Structures are given as C-alpha cells and as structure tokens.
Amino acid sequence: MKNKLALISVYYKEGVVDFAKSLVKLGYDITSTGGTLKMLRENGIDAIDVTELTNFEEILDGRVKTLAPQIFAGILYRRDKKDHVETVESKNIRPIDMVVNVLYPFEETVANKDSTEEEIIEKIDIGGPSMIRAAAKNHKDVIIVTSNKDYNEVIEKISSGKDDYNYRKELAKRAFIRTCKYEIAISNYFMRDEGDFKDNLLLGYEKEDELRYGENPHQKAAFYKPINDDEFEKLNIIQGKKLSYNNMLDISSAIDFMKNFTDENTVIGIKHLNPCAIASDSDLETAYDKCIKGDSESIFGGIVALNGEVTKSLAEKMTSFFLEIVIAPSFTEEAIEVFTKKKNLRVIEYKELGINNKKTEIREVFGGILLQEKDLSLYDSLDVVTDRKPSDKELEDLIFAYKVVKCTKSNSVCIVKDKRTLGVGLGDVNRFFASSHALDMAKDDAKGAVVASDGFFPFADSIKAFDEKGIKAIIQPGGSIKDKDTIDYANKHEISMIFTNMRHFRH
C-alpha cells in the first residue's frame, strides 16, 4: 500500500520545510511544484515533481502546472464509491490525501501603490483556488491547509489521531472563507473604476475581538474589521479595560468629529455619540479647560478626545474625575505614568486623529444596508443675508459653531463664545426645543455669543428667543419657505445672519 500523498504548493514558504518533514515522519509522500519543490529538495525532502503525476510539463511561465485531470481526480474522487475507486485505478491516478496551498498575494500586491497592472493580474491565482475548493469539497477524504499558521495544529491533529471528520470540516470551512475573501478582493479590483456606488457591493469582514458587551450588559457584541484593512491597527490601546460596543462607537465618533477641527488645538467631550462640549485655543491645555467649563457635568463618565500631545498636567486634570476614555495622537511618558493610577481608564493613542480617510459610510436597515458619502464638507458658501454683517470675531465663532452642529444629532443648535460651546441642544424633534435647550445651558453667558443650526429655522420663534438673550449673530443652512420671516426679524433687531446653503442633518 502506497503512502498517503500531500500536494504542497505555496507562495509563502515560511514554515513549509518543517511542516513537510513532519508529514514525511507521519508516513506521507510529498509532491510539489516550482519554487516550493526546489526549496523542499534543497532541504533534503525527496519531493515528487507534480509533472510525474500529470505527465505534462509546467508551461506558460507557471500559469499551468496543477490544472490537470490527474490532479483533480486524485483530489475529488470519493473513496467510499466503488466506481470512483475503480476509475482512478484504471486511469493510474494516484490519490491525493492532502492539499497545502497558500495563494498568491493578490491583496498585498493591490495594496502596494507601486504595483503595475501586469503585476496585479499575474497575482491572480488560478490553480490554487481550484485545488483548494476541490479539496475542501471532498473534505471527508482530503485534508486542506490554506495557511502556514495552521501547520503545527495539523501535525498535532494527525499525530494524535484527531484529524477526524469534524476537524477536516473545520479546515474546509477555513478554505472556503479564504477563497471567498480572495474572490472579493479580485472582484473589487475590477470594479475599482465604478466609483463608490457600484451595482454590486462586495464586503468582507473578519472578527477582531469579542467585546465586553453590547449597548447594554445583557447584549453580546463583537468587533469585525474589513479584510485587508489595517485602520484598526492604528489605534494603540495603552491601558484600560477591554472595550465595549459603546466604547467602539464613541471612539469612532471622536475620530470623525476631530476631522472637523484640524486648524487649531481642540478638545471634544463626547457622551452617547454626541459632543457635550467642544473648545479650541492656541494652547491645548487652555482648550481643555474651556471644554470642561462648557459642560463639566455631562462629561462625567464620557470620553475626551484631543488633537495634540497630552502632558502630565493635562493628565492630572483628566484623572481628577471619572472618564471612560482619553484619546489623543500622543502622550508624554509622564502623562502615561499619571494615567496608570486610573487602571480602568482606557488611554488610546491614534496618530492620525484629524485626517480624513474613509469617504463613505454604511448603516444597516431593515431589509438591507444604506451607503452614503460621508459629510466631509462644511458649507457651500457664506452668504450674509441680513443688513448687519458679523464682525471678524463673530465670524470666527460662527464657523466654529457650525462645525459643532455638524457633529451633533439632529435637530441641533449650539451657542458658542470664544470658540467654546456654552450650550448644545441636540437630538430634538423640534428646532425650537433644541434652541431652548441650548439657551438653558448657556444661561446668562449667552449674551454676545453666536448660534449655529444644522438645519434651517422654519419659524422666527428661535430667532426671537436668541435675541432676547443678547445673541446677535446666527449661522444656518437656509432653505425654508419662511426664510423671509427670519431675515426680516433679524434685520428689525440688528442681528447678522449667514446662510451656508449646506445642511448637516445627522440621524
């Protein structure tokens, strides 16, 4: 009786020699191709050239080497069917009991900006996926290995007699997942010129981690990252408890929000995916002090995001009360030492805070998913629609305030003075409610401040309420059928008003 036969053809050679030697000790013969065959023979493994099985030499620069009936019949025939067995014996086809194939690095080649189209096309593996799928289909009789990370596990299972049907089925599952990811990458490459809104949206995700829990402790949750996407690796979790579902949402919001504030040191306090306070200043620590002053109560148990380096003195301020997360592009060693006193506080470094990357976003809805462009612009134009023009100082605060409402849930209205939020009304079903909420937070500080709204004011009631508190500058998208009413009120009471002609609803 002949030894079992393992066909090994891998692009990445790491670990393959030791793996093949272990298989030989377990009674396997080895057949191989090209560079893999050469390496195995150079390391003392008496591997069989696959051409001895096919009776056909490798041709077309390696494009055709395993695509032969002798190979696929040896993999696919059913050992429990008499006519299958008789067929392969009559054709003098040797059974192949294991296929080891690590595919050409198509994904890595595409990711390399220096790769030419010819280089990319040549990394589309043909024989590899075909053999993998054949072996995975016939997993009852054939072991399929698609990653060098599985080598030690496979040897251990065979050595201990645990390479049973269930284990082979698990390897088959891994194999089909691998070929699926591979085909998605190739398909997306060929659809690259179709823009973001393709006729077919092919997505592939892999689990990165189990989370502590979901939105509530009784809900399970996990984090999945896109295949071949290293965005998550840019997060360096310096310390703290395991992340929860809500933590991941807050971190994502912090990164997105900060992309609106790249021109000055900025600190954002976030709670439940909304900014409870935002402040900017030429000095980061001053910006932090202004932010906390903006809403010192809501930030308790929330997240603080900063777009500059966190120093020891800043860290000491942030550890004086309860925070869930601090995220910044860098921390001094002294600051990290301070944070260690709050072991449950999650301290996260994200080098690219403030850089736009993703241009689209996906949300799941009943029956499917929605895809849209991210809201990356701030305004279409700045049109002063009133007789009174805002001062330079007011204009600076108005633009800052408009950035804030861009980050908040609709309906949103915020009151700002000296690049600091005094009051943020958000998530209301009525714009007057949002205006009232913001005014309640700002109290007497509202006098001399400015106001921003993420959508138009449908009536002049909010404008009247702002005027009564001494606010004389407003920025909004415009576009209401009653714009004239709000403009007339503003002119009558010497309020300056700017239309941006760009709405920023955030549902």
Automatic annotation (TrEMBL):
It catalyses: (6R)-10-formyltetrahydrofolate + 5-amino-1-(5-phospho-beta-D-ribosyl)imidazole-4-carboxamide = 5-formamido-1-(5-phospho-D-ribosyl)imidazole-4-carboxamide + (6S)-5,6,7,8-tetrahydrofolate; IMP + H2O = 5-formamido-1-(5-phospho-D-ribosyl)imidazole-4-carboxamide. GO terms for cellular component: cytosol. The keyword Hydrolase applies. InterPro entries: AICAR_Tfase_dup_dom_sf (IPR024051), Cytidine_deaminase-like (IPR016193), MGS-like_dom (IPR011607), MGS-like_dom_sf (IPR036914), PurH-like (IPR002695). Pathway: Purine metabolism; IMP biosynthesis via de novo pathway; 5-formamido-1-(5-phospho-D-ribosyl)imidazole-4-carboxamide from 5-amino-1-(5-phospho-D-ribosyl)imidazole-4-carboxamide (10-formyl THF route): step 1/1; Purine metabolism; IMP biosynthesis via de novo pathway; IMP from 5-formamido-1-(5-phospho-D-ribosyl)imidazole-4-carboxamide: step 1/1. Its EC number is 2.1.2.3, 3.5.4.10. Gene3D superfamilies: 3.40.140.20, Methylglyoxal synthase-like domain (3.40.50.1380). GO terms for biological process: 'de novo' IMP biosynthetic process. Pfam families: AICARFT_IMPCHas (PF01808), MGS (PF02142). The keyword DNA repair does not apply. SUPFAM superfamilies: Cytidine deaminase-like, Methylglyoxal synthase-like. Residues 1-146 form the MGS-like domain. Keywords: Hydrolase, Multifunctional enzyme, Purine biosynthesis, Transferase. It comes from the Bacteria. One of its GO terms (molecular function) is IMP cyclohydrolase activity. Signal peptide: none annotated. PANTHER family: BIFUNCTIONAL PURINE BIOSYNTHESIS PROTEIN ATIC, BIFUNCTIONAL PURINE BIOSYNTHESIS PROTEIN PURH. Belongs to the PurH family. The IMP cyclohydrolase activity resides in the N-terminal region. This is Bifunctional purine biosynthesis protein PurH. The gene is purH.
